[in-house]
Amino acid sequence: MTKYCLTVTCATTRGIVAAIATFLAEHGCNITDSSQFDDVETSRFFMRISFESQDGVDLAALEADFAAIAKTFSMQFAFHDEAEKMKVVIMVSRFGHCLNDLLYRVRIGALPVEIVAVISNHMDYQKAVVNSDIPFHCIRVTKENKPQAEAAIMKVVEEAGAELIVLARYMQILSDEMCQKMSGRIINIHHSFLPSFKGANPYKQAFARGVKLIGATSHYVTADLDEGPIIEQDTVRITHAQSPDDYVSLGRDVESQVLARAIHAHANHRVFLNGNKTVVFQASPGSYSSEKMG
């Protein structure tokens, strides 16, 4: 049986869940997982439902028939085929830990995405990318050629049909125009020391201050640099016995894990923008399982 998911956002009111459940039942669908959240502060309702089409109803028919319910509740909605992998472009500079982690996770089927291209402003990871049978594009960026470079980046994204850009430690600031064009479709990763420790060597700054927790934040990119809606965060504990290099190594690991979890949530349509925040539902049963062990 084909598995789909339905995502819904609308103003809070009664009868939403009943209408959706009735619709799915009448169309021969069985709900296998459901999450919902009613934000009392914004009066917005969010819902994600996984279901099986037991009678073979296809996506187009479901979308067409659901339009009447969506109109009644003024819903923003989308149906997704859970077997389809989201197309992703990864951008990286000279720190390769997140890129290498994502290449491995995709290779074993632990992330429901297809990496359609890797873009870098350096050549460091060309071999690793090409050996994974993924197109590699080196697009140099300077103050003088930034508009042309971003045009070249967007050309790669559009020609590859990418739905998401992942900044896997890409150390160039994107223009406001690119952030707005790809709003809600660019994910970034950085350490969680901001705003305390900015600039170069934040881990060494943290070591000098005796920080006991280090972490990472993954968020959607906006024109406000590292202040976009947060998707995922995590921390690791540090003791007085650790060195600055230990801080860097532990930070590298937590960055890789947090970015992978953020991509997993986005690709499974579990993340909803809610003003400057996000609603992130728990993963459906079985969605973390990988196709291979290594």
From TrEMBL:
Gene Ontology terms, MF aspect: formyltetrahydrofolate deformylase activity
PROSITE patterns linked to this entry: ACT
Active site: D226
Protein's recorded name: Formyltetrahydrofolate deformylase
Enzyme class: hydrolase
Cross-referenced InterPro entries: ACT-like_dom_sf, ACT_dom, Formyl-FH4-Hydrolase_C, Formyl_transf_N, Formyl_transf_N_sf, PurU, PurU_ACT
Domain ACT residues, every copy: 5-91
Pathway: Purine metabolism; IMP biosynthesis via de novo pathway; formate from 10-formyl-5,6,7,8-tetrahydrofolate: step 1/1
The UniProt record lists the keyword Cell cycle: no
Repeat recorded as keyword: no
Keyword field: Hydrolase, One-carbon metabolism, Purine biosynthesis
UniProt-listed Pfam families: ACT (PF01842), Formyl_trans_N (PF00551)
The enzyme's E.C. designation: 3.5.1.10
Primary role: Catalyzes the hydrolysis of 10-formyltetrahydrofolate (formyl-FH4) to formate and tetrahydrofolate (FH4).
Reactions it catalyzes: (6R)-10-formyltetrahydrofolate + H2O = (6S)-5,6,7,8-tetrahydrofolate + formate + H(+)
